Predict the structure.
Amino acid sequence: MKAARRWGAASAGVLVALAVGLLGQTQAAAAPVSGPSPTVVGGTNAAQGEFPWMTRLSMGCGAAVIAPRVVLTAAHCVRPTGAYTGYTATINRANLTNTSVGQSIRSTYVYRSPLYSSTGTYDWALIELASAANVPLLSIANQGETSLNSGSFTIMGWGATYEGGPQSSTLKKATVPFVSDATCAQAYRELAPATEICAGYPQGGVDTCQGDSGGPMVKRATTGEWREVGIVSYGLGCARAGYPGVYAEVQALSNAIKARISSSGTVIR
Ligand code: ARG
């Protein structure tokens, strides 16, 4: 599924729109999918404050606050590494039209994984914020913490609620099961199993979709706190049977991510 990777890697809105247009031409429009839970595709509204670290980025991606002045997102969402003040991060505002809650903070710097390539692997980036977010931080999986790679995960975002659909003004959440690398590689020949993790139902119906990229896939630890195990990266269409969502695998990237965050919670230049 070379094309799937290309769509996932498209960073410009125009490219995404083009890709979606091409998809609509070359393949039958997706039939309405009925899934195990109502997204995201197949999701329900998240409550205000339920995921306080959840962030919407102005270029149309998701992200999570992992240090006072740092959000973690997908590399394919951002421009190359360097100073940049053109992004706005909207934090802890489940309904984006409700400006009486949450915060809106400008970016100051972008760090894009230097290993990120057009093949779509190492799809992670950091955005430094102009001021500290006043929310609890989302804890990321530790390097080698593969024990988190099982069971089911919570996905969320303001992305399309059906393939080809518009963005959502309200934050949606859904639950999806872990998919093994062996099974996922049957759908995506280009899967990089060491650094990517898949999730979704065999029959589809529940998934992240365009505009959810960069957002966190999380799992509740035994201690009750949320841990980030994946970063929304790519998929063929959305919620299709046999095509799970593919996520950057945070446990495999954790040391590299942490190495770019200073003790004061900013991005190391
Ligand atoms: N690349 C998409 C974006 O830019 C996210 C795709 C996720 N797709 C999926 N089927 N899980 O928002």
Notes: The chain has two domains: 4-45+140-253, 54-136.
